[in-house]
Design brief:
Elements lengths: L5 H8 L7 E8 L5 E8 L1 H6 L10 E7 H7 L1 H4 L4 H8 L5 E7 L4 E10 L8 H14 L23 E8 L2 E8 L2 H10 L4 H4 L3 E7 L4 E4 L5 E2 L5 E7 H6 L6 E5 L2
Parallel strand pairs: 1-8
Antiparallel strand pairs: 1-2, 2-5, 3-4, 4-5, 6-7, 7-12, 8-11, 9-12, 10-11
């Protein structure tokens, strides 16, 4: 596995500081199986020349397999709390493809996995943040000579929400449950100073189904010509303030 340079990871670990775009792509098959992908497009960040990435000519095309990470660190993981172990195990089937090109001002990350039933999925954005903490902390300053356990700094704090997916009897839903209002507020407070930069950031759902959509709960969604896909885009700040803004219920044709 190719390691990232520290300068790139510094940018990535603070990816919520500038106008970046997040997309959640779901492709659902007739038998209920499918694939989920969360994409982070940090190209605008690269164009702004934030941090050291703009100063260093660098090209990265890397694949991170989280199952390998969990196996490599299984001894350390076994010493963590049950809650933390469960959080890490959620990444087991994910892979992440990272492309960074400083000259082309490109930064793209796709974290994805297949699923046998959509109900297996959870809060994909929370999983993505966990993944970035792990990979960022798994690298050390070149030449420092120090060893570093990335699991030591993995915080137990999550966003205070749960996301549940369901597909039964031609009906699909993505519903967010607020389980800790204080954590949701804390997440927003932590972004207060970055609101100006986050004004142009978006979070987008792009879901594709095996049959035509006949009913949709959101009046803000747009549809493909074949009516088998929809796109729902909201401001990132709006999403953080109200995670339920991306709740959707979809009914497919018989």
């Amino acid at each position: 596995m190719k390691r990232f340079s520290l300068c790139v990871l510094t940018i990535v670990s603070s990816l919520l500081l500038v106008g970046c775009q997040f997309s959640e792509h779901l492709n659902l098959n007739e038998d209920g199986t499918g694939k989920i992908t969360i994409n982070f497009d940090g190209s605008e960040l690269m164009k702004m020349g934030e941090g050291q990435v703009a100063e260093k000519k660098e090209k990265i095309d890397s694949l991170l397999v989280f199952n390998d990470f969990l196996e490599e660190h299984k001894d350390s993981i076994s010493k963590l709390s049950k809650e933390m172990q469960e959080r890490l195990q959620r990444l087991k089937d994910f892979e992440m493809h990272i492309v960074v090109n400083s000259e082309a001002k490109e930064m793209n990350m796709d974290m994805y996995k297949g699923f046998k039933d959509v109900s297996e999925l959870g809060d994909i954005f929370s999983d993505f943040k966990t993944a970035m903490v792990i990979e960022g902390k798994n690298n050390k300053t070149p030449g420092s000579g120090s060893t570093f356990d990335p699991l030591e700094t993995l915080t137990s704090e999550e966003g205070g929400t749960k996301v549940r997916y369901s597909f039964k009897n031609n009906k699909f839903s993505r519903i967010t449950e607020i389980i800790d209002e204080e954590k949701v507020k804390k997440s927003m407070d932590s972004l207060e100073k970055a609101k100006m930069f986050l004004a142009s950031s978006k979070y987008k759902l792009k879901y594709t189904f095996p049959r035509k959509i006949v009913k949709m709960s959101s009046d803000k969604a747009t549809f493909s010509l074949d009516m088998k896909s929809f796109i729902l885009e909201v401001g990132f700040i709006d999403f953080m303030e109200n995670p339920k803004i991306l709740d959707v219920e979809v009914e497919l044709e018989n």
